[in-house]
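Whiteboard transcription, Tuesday session. T.W. wrote the C-alpha cells on the left side:
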C-alpha cells in the first residue's frame, strides 16, 4: 500500500482507522488513528514504497514493544508486508519540554526532576540494548496524567538512519542537553532546536548553565557540565551513560501531580517522528477576593449598648459556672452512675485507634468484561508509595467506557483474607468518576461484593464499607471515567488500604 493510497479512513490490520495526518518526512507519514477494538487513539506510522529503511524501523519497533517502563511510549504493533508496512504506538497527550520552555527556563528542581525520570527510563532501555540517539526537547513530555514520557526510543534513530559506536555516551549527552535546555531555555547545539535559541558561547565554548541563568544550583551545573560540556569539566569525570546521569540526579525531587483541570478537547497536535502528542492548554482557576468585613459604626450611640451586652455576658458566665459546679458535684456523689454506654469507647474511636496500613502483595489491571487485562504492567505504580507515578485505564471515547463494558478496575491481592476498614485512592483531579469498592476471597468479578460507592469522585477519595467487609482481594472498580484531554481515563496515583487486623 503506497503512501498515495493511504488516506484518512484507511483501516490497517482490520482495527486501526487512520484519521488525521500529523506529519510527513522523507517518505514516512505519522497519523493519529483510532484502535476500533479498544476504542482509543493511537499513533500510526506508514511508509512510501521508496522509503529505504522500512525493515530497520519495523525491527526497532518490535524490539521496543518489549520495553515495560511506563515512562517509555509503548509500541502496540508493527508489520512489514508487501502491500503495507506500519508501526502502531501509544498516542501521548501532554506538553513537551519545548512547550514547557515557551515562557522561559523551568524552576531548576523541576527541570532536574523531569530529566531524572527520563534518565531512569533510558537506563532501562539500555539494559535491553535499545538506544535513542537523537534526544530533543520534543521527545521529553510531561503528560496530562502528570507523568514523564520519553518518545521515540530505538524507532526514531531507525527512521533517521542514525548509528553510533558509543550509544551510552550519546544518550548521556542528549540527557545533558535536555537538562541544559530546562535550566536555561537555550539549546547547547550548533543551531536552534524546536524554537529554542542557541546557547551563548564564550571563547568558542558553550557557557555553563550558571553563566546563562542566575539561581541555577551548583550541583545541577556540575551534572550538566559532566554530561554534555566536555570543555568545561576541568578534570571532572564524564557522565558516560543514562544510568550514570540517573545516579547523579537520584536525590532530586520528582515532578508531582499538578491539581489543574484539563479541557476535554485537545488543542493543536504535535509529535515526535514516531509517537503522537496532543498539547492541552491548562486552565488556571482564579479565586475571587473575599468581600471586606463590615466595620461597626464608630459613634457614641454604641457605647451604652456595649455596656448592656457586657453585663449580660458576665451574668451568663456566672450562671454557667454555677451549673457546671453543681453537675460535677452530682457526678462525684453518684458512683453508681454508669459511664457512657457501658464504659467502653465508641466503635468508631476504637477502630480508628487500631487501624493499620496494609500493603497489597500484588496489583493488576482488571478487565474481566473486555480483553482480561488493563495495563497490568503499570499496576504496581499505584502501590509503590510514590505519588508521582500512576496506573490508568485504557483510553475510552466516552465516560461510560465507550459503551463497551460495564466496568474496569485495579485489583489488589492482599496476600490473605482480612477485614477492610477503608481504602484511600488518589484519583485524578478531573471530576466525573464513579468508583466502587469490591471485596472478596476470589479474584472473580462475580465473587467480589460491592461494599462502597463514590460518585463524581476526584482527588483523594476514601471508600469506607457500609458494613464490615472481609476478603483477600480488593477491587477499585470504575463504572464511569472522567474526561482526559479529548479522551476518557480512570487514573489512580496511589492506593492505601487500612485494616483493623487479619480476619
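and on the right, the sequence the group agreed on:
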Amino acid at each position: 500500500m503506497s503512501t498515495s493510497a493511504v488516506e484518512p479512513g484507511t483501516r490497517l490490520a482490520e482495527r486501526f482507522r487512520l484519521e488525521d495526518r500529523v506529519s510527513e518526512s522523507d517518505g514516512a507519514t505519522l497519523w493519529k488513528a483510532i484502535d476500533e477494538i479498544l476504542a482509543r487513539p493511537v499513533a500510526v506510522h506508514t511508509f512510501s514504497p521508496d522509503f529505504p529503511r522500512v525493515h530497520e524501523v519495523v525491527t526497532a519497533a518490535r524490539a521496543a514493544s518489549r520495553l515495560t517502563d511506563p515512562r517509555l511510549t509503548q509500541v502496540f504493533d508493527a508489520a512489514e508486508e508487501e502491500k503495507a508496512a506500519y508501526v502502531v504506538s501509544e498516542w501521548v497527550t501532554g506538553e513537551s519540554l519545548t512547550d514547557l520552555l515557551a515562557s522561559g527556563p523551568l524552576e531548576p528542581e523541576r527541570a532536574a526532576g523531569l530529566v531524572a525520570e527520563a534518565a531512569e527510563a533510558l537506563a532501562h532501555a539500555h539494559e535491553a540494548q535499545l538506544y535513542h540517539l537523537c534526544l530533543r526537547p520534543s521527545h521529553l513530555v510531561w503528560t496530562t496524567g502528570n507523568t514523564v514520557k520519553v518518545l521515540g526510543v530505538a524507532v526514531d534513530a531507525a527512521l533517521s538512519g542514525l548509528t553510533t559506536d558509543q550509544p551510552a555516551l550519546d544518550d548521556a549527552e542528549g540527557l545533558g542537553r535536555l537538562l541544559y535546555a530546562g535550566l536555561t531555555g537555550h539549546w547547547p547545539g550548533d543551531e536552534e532546536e524546536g524554537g529554542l535559541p542557541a546557547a551563548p558561547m564564550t571563547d568558542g565554548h558553550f557557557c555553563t548553565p550558571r553563566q546563562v541563568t542566575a539561581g541555577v544550583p551548583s550541583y545541577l551545573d556540575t551534572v550538566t557540565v559532566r554530561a554534555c560540556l566536555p570543555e568545561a569539566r576541568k578534570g571532572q569525570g564524564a557522565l558516560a551513560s543514562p544510568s550514570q546521569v540517573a545516579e547523579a540526579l537520584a536525590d532530586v525531587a520528582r515532578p508531582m501531580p499538578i491539581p489543574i483541570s484539563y479541557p476535554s478537547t485537545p488543542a493543536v497536535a504535535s509529535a515526535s517522528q514516531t509517537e503522537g502528542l496532543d498539547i492541552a492548554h491548562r486552565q488556571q482557576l482564579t479565586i475571587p477576593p473575599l468581600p471586606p468585613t463590615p466595620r461597626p459604626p464608630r459613634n457614641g450611640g454604641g457605647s451604652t449598648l456595649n455596656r448592656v451586652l457586657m453585663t449580660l455576658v458576665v451574668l451568663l458566665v456566672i450562671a454557667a459556672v454555677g451549673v457546671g459546679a453543681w453537675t460535677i458535684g452530682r457526678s462525684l456523689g453518684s458512683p453508681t452512675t454508669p459511664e457512657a454506654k457501658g464504659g467502653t469507647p465508641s466503635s468508631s474511636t476504637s477502630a480508628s485507634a487500631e487501624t493499620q496500613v496494609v500493603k497489597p502483595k500484588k496489583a493488576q489491571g482488571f478487565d474481566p468484561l473486555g480483553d482480561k487485562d488493563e495495563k497490568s504492567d503499570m499496576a504496581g505504580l499505584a502501590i509503590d508509595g510514590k505519588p508521582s507515578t500512576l496506573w490508568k485505564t485504557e483510553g475510552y471515547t466516552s465516560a461510560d467506557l465507550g459503551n463497551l463494558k460495564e466496568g474496569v478496575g485495579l485489583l489488589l491481592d492482599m496476600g490473605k483474607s482480612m477485614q477492610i476498614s477503608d481504602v484511600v485512592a488518589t484519583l485524578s483531579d478531573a471530576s466525573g468518576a464513579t468508583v466502587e469498592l469490591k471485596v472478596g476471597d476470589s479474584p472473580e468479578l462475580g465473587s467480589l461484593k460491592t461494599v462502597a460507592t463514590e460518585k463524581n469522585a476526584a482527588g483523594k477519595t476514601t471508600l469506607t464499607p457500609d458494613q464490615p467487609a472481609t476478603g483477600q482481594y480488593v477491587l477499585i472498580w470504575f463504572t464511569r471515567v472522567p474526561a482526559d484531554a479529548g479522551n476518557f481515563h480512570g487514573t489512580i496515583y496511589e492506593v492505601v488500604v487500612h485494616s483493623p487486623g487479619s480476619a
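Someone added at the bottom: The CA atoms of residues 189 and 198 lie 6 Å apart.
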